[in-house]
Amino acid sequence: MAEVLVLVETAPDGSGVRKTTLEALTAARVLGEPSAVVLGAPGTAAGVKDALAEYGAAKVLVGESDDIDAYLVAPKAEVLAQLVADRSPAAVVIPSTPEGKEIAGRLAIKTGSGFLTDVTEIAADGTATQVAFAGATIVHAKVTTGTPIYTLRGNSVAPEAAPAAAEEETVTVSVSDAAKQTRVVDRVVEQKSDRPDLTEASIVVSGGRGVASAENFSIIEGLADSLGAAVGASRAAVDSGFYPHSFQVGQTGKTVSPQLYIAVGISGAIQHRAGMQTSKSIVAVNKDPEAPIFELADFGVVGDLNTVVPAATEQITAR
Ligand code: FAD
C-alpha cells in the first residue's frame, strides 16, 4: 500500500499529540498507509507513539534534534522534503495550523509539488474539498504536479481509531545553514486553561461587541463553562479590548469548525463568518432581528444577551 506522510503536531505544553494530528491520520488513511513524522527536540517522540499507533500510523518516523527546535519552521520543511525525495510517498498531510501551512508552502516549493490548503475532506482519488471566498464557494481540487501536499482544516474530519503497528524508524536530521537564519530566542507557552483549545473544541461560545465590556465577558465564559466549551471573540470585541487577540475567530483570527457554535452579540460580518461558518450547528443570540448572523444560524434567539445568556447558563447548569 502507498505510504502517506503525516506531520505530527505535539502540544506546546508537552501534553502529547494534538487532535489535529489524529484528524490528519484519519484523513490520510483514504490515500494509503500513514507514516507519522515526528520532528522536534530530543525526547519529542516519547509519549506520543501510542496515540499515533491507535490512529493508524503504520510507521513512526522520528527526527529529533536541537536544530529542529531552535530554528522556526525551516528545518522541518527541509527534513520533510528529504523524506519526500527518499521515500516518494503518495501524499503528505499536515494539520492546517499557522505552522503547518507555512511548512506545507515551503515543502511545496522545495519538492516542486502542488499543495492544497485548508482542505475539509480528501477523497480516495486525491480530490480535496476546500471552502473558498469566506464560504461562498465549495471547491473540489486535485494536485497535478509532484507529490500532493494537503493541509487539513481542524475539526473537519472526526478522528477515528484504527490500530496499527507504529514501527519506529529514525530519520537522519541534517539542517543546512540556509534553514538556520531565524533562531528562536524564547518561547512563551500560553497559560493552560481548563477550557478546551479554541480550534479543537467541539463547542465554542463567542462574544462580540454587543457584550459591551471586558468584565461582561464573564457571561460568555459562564455559558462556555456550563457546556465544557471554548471561548471565542469577534474582532470588534478584541479590538475593543474585551478579550485577548488569541481568541479571535474569523478571517484574520482562528478558523473553527465545532459541532456547536454560539455567537453572542455578534452581527455576522463576512470576515467573522469566514472563521466559523463550517460549524455543524450555529446558534445566535442578538437583540437585532435583522442581524446578518441570523441568515446563517440554525437557531436564533432575539433578545438582550444580558438576560438570555445567564438564563441559558442557569438552565444548563441545573441539568
Ligand atoms: P458589530 O458588528 O458591532 O455587532 C455587534 C452586534 O451585537 C450587533 O448585531 C448588535 O445588534 C448586537 N448587540 C448589541 N448589544 C446587544 C445585546 N445587549 N444583546 C444582544 N445583542 C446585542 N471580524 C471578526 O470577527 N474576525 C475577523 O477575523 C475579522 N477580520 C477582518 C479582516 C478585515 C480585513 C476586515 C476589514 C474586517 C475584519 N473583521 C473581522 C471585522 C468585521 O468586518 C466586523 O467589523 C466584526 O466582525 C464585527 O464584530 P461584531 O459582530 O462583534 O460587532
TrEMBL record:
<keyword id="KW-0285">Flavoprotein</keyword>
<keyword id="KW-0249">Electron transport</keyword>
<dbReference type="GO" id="GO:0009055">
    <property type="term" value="F:electron transfer activity"/>
</dbReference>
<keyword id="KW-0274">FAD</keyword>
<dbReference type="InterPro" id="IPR001308">
    <property type="entry name" value="ETF_a/FixB"/>
</dbReference>
<feature type="binding site">
    <location>
        <begin position="234"/>
        <end position="235"/>
    </location>
    <ligand>
        <name>FAD</name>
    </ligand>
</feature>
<dbReference type="InterPro" id="IPR014729">
    <property type="entry name" value="Rossmann-like_a/b/a_fold"/>
</dbReference>
<feature type="binding site">
    <location>
        <position position="209"/>
    </location>
    <ligand>
        <name>FAD</name>
    </ligand>
</feature>
<dbReference type="GO" id="GO:0050660">
    <property type="term" value="F:flavin adenine dinucleotide binding"/>
</dbReference>
<comment type="function">
    <text>The electron transfer flavoprotein serves as a specific electron acceptor for other dehydrogenases. It transfers the electrons to the main respiratory chain via ETF-ubiquinone oxidoreductase (ETF dehydrogenase).</text>
</comment>
<feature type="binding site">
    <location>
        <position position="286"/>
    </location>
    <ligand>
        <name>FAD</name>
    </ligand>
</feature>
<dbReference type="Pfam" id="PF01012">
    <property type="entry name" value="ETF"/>
</dbReference>
<dbReference type="InterPro" id="IPR018206">
    <property type="entry name" value="ETF_asu_C_CS"/>
</dbReference>
<protein>
    <submittedName>
        <fullName>Electron transfer flavoprotein alpha subunit apoprotein</fullName>
    </submittedName>
</protein>
<feature type="binding site">
    <location>
        <begin position="265"/>
        <end position="272"/>
    </location>
    <ligand>
        <name>FAD</name>
    </ligand>
</feature>
<keyword id="KW-0813">Transport</keyword>
<dbReference type="InterPro" id="IPR014730">
    <property type="entry name" value="ETF_a/b_N"/>
</dbReference>
<feature type="domain" description="Electron transfer flavoprotein alpha/beta-subunit N-terminal">
    <location>
        <begin position="4"/>
        <end position="188"/>
    </location>
</feature>
<comment type="similarity">
    <text>Belongs to the ETF alpha-subunit/FixB family.</text>
</comment>
<comment type="subunit">
    <text>Heterodimer of an alpha and a beta subunit.</text>
</comment>
<dbReference type="Pfam" id="PF00766">
    <property type="entry name" value="ETF_alpha"/>
</dbReference>
<feature type="binding site">
    <location>
        <begin position="248"/>
        <end position="252"/>
    </location>
    <ligand>
        <name>FAD</name>
    </ligand>
</feature>
<dbReference type="InterPro" id="IPR029035">
    <property type="entry name" value="DHS-like_NAD/FAD-binding_dom"/>
</dbReference>
<dbReference type="GO" id="GO:0033539">
    <property type="term" value="P:fatty acid beta-oxidation using acyl-CoA dehydrogenase"/>
</dbReference>
<dbReference type="InterPro" id="IPR014731">
    <property type="entry name" value="ETF_asu_C"/>
</dbReference>
